């Protein structure tokens, strides 16, 4: 290790020497181990021998499955639902609290594995980036969930799961929400997908800023029909949502085309509903096509529903709850049932790994009208509290996973990147020149509870580290300059809502110090592998049929940038 790469003295004192001897430099070869954060090296020191034995057993098991499938690894279908926290899907005993049910997701849970302690990031874009790259969003610079034109997004330097699986021979398709940027290099078709249909932005534009939502009072200030602009001097201040790009279609590294929206059109809830049904139908169509090919496939369907806030499009409520989000969740559950039925119909269900999970907690700003609530854990979307980062997650893979299994081991959304790469026999394509937060949780997935390889999580709100979870304890970082001995610590078994803070001193003098040491190691690793910036460019590059109003919006943005 070069002198420049050495950690500071205070950091070296907190990390076992084996860690600093085992971390490869950026220039080392691809066959070197994946670079993980310091905490994983500490666990590896304690459990490495046993884990190595487990890995040999798991590798042999996966090889048997591939051999029985003509040498091919499993197909993967990844379904990520928006703003659904823990207790909102797949748990029938909570129907009495929710006032709605999700029978298809519940059946999937019965047929597969329930991940009872899944941690995500605190909002949409960060979770999706973490899942795609195996890296916490803060490392990529994409820490905000943006709803309007921004001119930034996921850098081409990042390596996505789609790119890793493509290298291993998978055909890759993305349908539905993307939300990783509005610039050309950030689009799904430039981030490893062979084919994609997706909206450039997200539901802030489509479900809240549409004209139906404003008329119903769910948002305000956008429609010129509902205000007089008498004293509005700056005509660039308010974004015209109807001038933004909506859904696009394209193939890998090729141009995109906006579809199903014409010049001068005004976006409404009807457009949104048609768009979502189109992505579902496209998913069914792509399953048909992919099942006839010779390659294993990775099909990613990220619905924008159940985010929905309008009531006028509800013909007749199907749930006792009756809120727009509850109704939409019930509807999407039915669509998931269609996808699962299609896998059965095509005869590929047994060796297709299906994931269904939420991306973060509920949209608490709208809970009184949407039909959601924070239920078990306190907090929601954008919060570092458990309610913001705990979601239901289910995996079904009939030839490999025991039906009805439940695990309480901790897992983080980044782990799916590394775990799916291993299942796909694609680990060699995970980059070794950067820090990867995702851990290989294949042993837990196949062997069950107590075979997990994580007992910690670092939780950010945007770019700010807000809390650290270790085992059953959660440490809320104190304000700068405060003594960590007085920082709040929560025992999540005794106080899952984090509403009765206990000073660190309650757990014994210095109990806060192990958390502070974790923070120091974590920040110290950033000195060796610094966080990167997201990419910046003119928005909507590579879309070949921009409407006149969209072209004017881009021109206005370009003119406003400092020279």
UniProtKB/TrEMBL annotation:
Named from the GO MF annotations, one term is: metal ion binding
The answer to keyword Signal applying to this record is yes
One short Pfam name that applies is Sulfatase
Keywords from UniProt, A to Z, are: Calcium, Hydrolase, Metal-binding, Signal
Q: Which PROSITE patterns match?
A: SULFATASE_1
Q: Which InterPro entries match?
A: Alkaline_phosphatase_core_sf, Sulfatase, Sulfatase_CS, Sulfatase_N
Domain of life from the UniProt record: Bacteria
Please state the Enzyme Commission number of this protein: 3.1.6.1
* Cofactor dependence: Ca(2+)
| Residue ranges annotated for the Sulfatase N-terminal domain, each copy included | 74-425
What family does this chain come from, according to its entry? Belongs to the sulfatase family.
Q: What is this protein called?
A: Arylsulfatase
Q: What is the lineage of its organism?
A: Bacteria, Pseudomonadati, Pseudomonadota, Alphaproteobacteria, Rhodobacterales
